Every structure is written in C-alpha cells, then in structure tokens.
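Deliverable D4.2, example record:
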Amino acid sequence: MENSKIITEIENTVLKWEETSTGNGDFGAITFLYRGKEFGHIHKTGDLDISFGEQMTEELLKKKLVKKHLYVPKTNITYPVLNEEKLPFAISLLRISYLSHYIKANEKDMFSQGIFESELAKLPERLTSVYLKQK
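Output generated by the structure prediction step:
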C-alpha cells in the first residue's frame, strides 16, 4: 500500500471518532483535531508525529516503539508508517492521543471516564502499559 493510501486510511479512521476533524499542517501534513485542537499529524512521507509529553515520550522511546521527533524530541514522537503492517499501531497511537484529549475536555463527566477506560483496554498492551505507567 502506498503512502497516500495509508494516509487516507488513517484519515478515514480518525474522522469516525467523535468530534474530530482534519486540517492542513506545516510542510503539507494533515493534522488530526479534536474540538479544533491537534492530537497528531501525518506527513506525506508517512511520518506520524504526536505530542505525548515528556514522560510518555520517554517511555515509548525506552521501549523502542517509536522514534525521536526531529524538532521536539523531549515531548513528541515520530512513528514512520511505511507499510500496511504499521497501520494498526499508528492508529492506536493516534487513538491514545485522542482519548487523552477527550478525557481532559470531559474530566468532570463520569460517563466519559468509563468510555476512556473501556477504550484504553482495547489498545495494544505494549501501548497502554506505557500510558498507565506515566500516570
């Protein structure tokens, strides 16, 4: 699967999530937005960039699940989505970023807490363990 098809697949998946949209980012990237706030972006090269903060970024790098972001290595990650096999993990990375934004926006809503926990349980264990460790 070529980059444009992979990017389209990711974009179509993200747009199914509640209150998401896309926009145009720097260097021709497609940004993924929750209520207008970016939770990740992907470049035409297939490089997916997400800001997770220092702790989560450090843990993901330590487990060698992602690469250091070129310009913001302390808080951001890059995950090269170079082929179809990398697609599910890329979507999982975006999903955990989306869920983090979702829960912050709805932190007083107990129903949202339940949704977050059930959604988190659906993600790959290697990713959720990193997320839970940084909490």
